[in-house]
Amino acid sequence: PPEIRREDYAPFPWLIPATRLEFELGLETTRVTATLEIERNPDADRSPTIRLNGDGLSLVELHCDEEPCTGHMMDGDDLIVTLEGDNHVLRIVTEIDPGANSQLMGLYASNGMLCTQCEAEGFRRITFFPDRPDVLSVYTVRMDAPEEQFPVLLSNGNRTGTGKDKGGMHWAVWHDPWPKPSYLFALVAGDLVAREDCFTTMSGKDVDLAIWVRKDDLPRTAHAMESLKRSMTWDEETFGREYDLDVFNIVAVGDFNMGAMENKGLNVFNTKYVLADEETATDGDFDAIEGVIGHEYFHNWSGNRITCRDWFQLSLKEGFTVLRDQLFSQDMHSEAVKRIEDVRVLRSVQFPEDSGPLAHPIRPDSYREISNFYTSTIYNKGAEVIRMMRSMAGPERFRKGTDLYFERHDGEAATCEDFVRAIEEGAELDLDHFRLWYSQAGTPRVKVALTHEGDTASLALSQEVPPTPGQSEKRPMPIPLRIALFDRATGKSEGEELVMLDSAETTLRFDGFAEKPVLSINRGFTAPVRIEREIVREDLAFLARNDDDPFARSEAMQDLVVGHLLEAADGSPAEGASEAIAGALGEILKDDAIDDLMRGELMMLPGVTYLMDQVLLADPGRIFAAREALKADLGTRLEKELEALHERASAVPFSHDPEAKGARKVGTMALTYLAASDPQRAADLAAAQYDSADNMTDRQGALMVLSGIDSAARSDRLLDFYDRFEGNALVIDKWFSLQASSLHPDVIEHVKTLADHPDFTLRNPNRARSLYMAFTGTPQGFHAASGEGYRMIADLILELDPINAQTAARFVPALGRWRRIEEGRAALMREQLQRIADAPKLSRDTYEQVTRSLG
Ligand code: DPP
Ligand code: ZN
């Protein structure tokens, strides 16, 4: 497959002011008639032809200006039509089989309904079209379908007509007045019911809201609807963005490759991010739904009104929209807790990506398959880069920048450079040098040393951006760091300031310190960098106790633990380290000044993936053992306190209040420690928590703990859980995933058995991920020294690739980490990658990921 390069961008030679699509819908055969009004693009080179992308389509009819067209040819999957004049009307008929579409791209069937997914290049599986984001067109869509089978017919924009025909057929016409690229097209046909509501926008316009689901799911849509209304209000208040159509529809679909999709006026969601009630969804699920509803809604401006010129600019809409959804969730809940969670995701997913074979800048220079670039780098690092601009400008000036961006580029297909320029002008920032964050990959390492002489503290900062594939030389980047200096005696600081490290090294002086202060740095995680600080354990313990920035406090606690675990995994734990950690954790358990949601964060040990990423060559077995040993040690030392915490938490009645949510979080967290120190006692407590649970958070938490402990209670409660929720796909996903991600030594055997379970299928991405993605996180399973875990994932990739290439390719990065893992396992991982690479007929998706991973 060819490599596509950013520098080769050229505007499309034709404009398509209007597109009319007519669908004769059927599960096995759908006939699509596309009528395109085309005219020459005055801003592009003149071309004797028009290239219409296709993917596996067969052409049934082609008319040009009402005449059958003869001047056309196929180039691979694309259709090329020769055209002489400047204005034409093309009419193209294709026939597709949605029932056979297991890739879930284009038009496909899910549970008897029909739906679409077009981003990034799925539209070309429906009809021939210039399937690129810079070709904007006004769409009118007519759907004809048997009414009994497909009573609901939806598309983008507003419904402008509907009617019945003979033979039980009916039809609907939808018109979207906003010009859009093909990737934002959507259609849904099915037997659905809606939760309806209404929203009045800031200028007084009424918008009809509807969330469409299967009948049985209707009671589980209230939270999604509330989340939607909150998103609409928040975007008006925070970014001045108002909704722009008379209706906003959301449809929940059980078979979906991604989380959700922002199609104009018709968002299509994975059921996972819509359906929730307290019996079937955890607190984490509720929060995720709110975040994803917000994210897709916010795309209406950052993505739809202003879209991307080409797919290299993907972070223009995704990075910005992730930042917007993060700020939204921060405002709805605890800012500090949300920040800690977001940074945890960044570090456990994006940092390893950025230090591995798939590292790429947030604005990549080339790709073979764009689906592979919906990465944590584009999304999460992209959000961090824009967050840095916001930190440097402050929220008010940043808002002036985004106002200018929305005003200047409304209706356009824009670039990251357009965004940076708008922020630069609107927020009055100099971002000249800052643009390096768009072009350089790799996580900068910042070395920090604080020295003290007389009454001056000197802070020496230096940076290094590591080489990444295709980028051996790096330039220093501007790095904004929020810092504070604490007085040892009072435990207080004089306040914080934002310092810039914008060269390879710099030294900053702070006067007025008779004694050496304690440094708190990168507070709030102002910059997505690795901080390497020379700091003694006592000072970390001091910050874990005293830092008034809750984020920095949790960082100190994490650093304390990480330092110890890496030494322990190395076989040389420092004297007194676990006492110090137990001391700090003990203080956290009893500190009345923090709420339970924050306490839960502070109690959480760094994950194995994150720990593995902290060393050059990781031994997952030893890291896992060290982590379990620390848990057991802390569980023993703090047994009384942890049991008391669990008891206190268990007594709090269910509600969605932060207090009750926090209690659920710390209750289960306490059990995870006891599970390591006294498994039988923990199993009893977990079984009791399971039996008395009146909500999924407590029930799942208890089962999570139980599934790692060999006991009668384990098999008992797993059976009960299955029986209780049989038939509810999302909850049965949890059942698979709890077992596949467990700490149980026999996890490999469990996964093999589960793969043969009648409810298991590779055709549903949620189900496939619930078993195998969960498994890739197990150090004792996926990373088993025998290599069996690696082989299982390679087998999975090979089996899934022909069914659903996009989902299959997502499993490759787990094997791609081999360079950062000890020799023995590294060889086994490589062997499996090679076995995949050697397989005949790999998809473009998997081929690209595997070859890049082999390096
Ligand atoms: N579903 C993806 C997202 O919203 C693609 N745009 O981020
Ligand atoms: Zn998005």
From TrEMBL:
Cofactor(s) for this UniProt protein: Zn(2+)
Enzyme class: hydrolase
Domain Aminopeptidase N-like N-terminal per the UniProt entry, residue ranges: 89-184
Peptidase M1 alanyl aminopeptidase Ig-like fold domain: residues covered: 442-533
UniProt-listed Pfam families: DUF3458, DUF3458_C, Peptidase_M1, Peptidase_M1_N
Domain Peptidase M1 alanyl aminopeptidase C-terminal: 538-854
Transmembrane segments: none
Segments forming domain Peptidase M1 membrane alanine aminopeptidase: 224-434
MF terms in GO: alanyl aminopeptidase activity
EC number from the UniProt entry: 3.4.11.2
Family: Belongs to the peptidase M1 family.
Protein known as: Aminopeptidase N
Record organism: Qipengyuania spongiae
Name of the gene: pepN
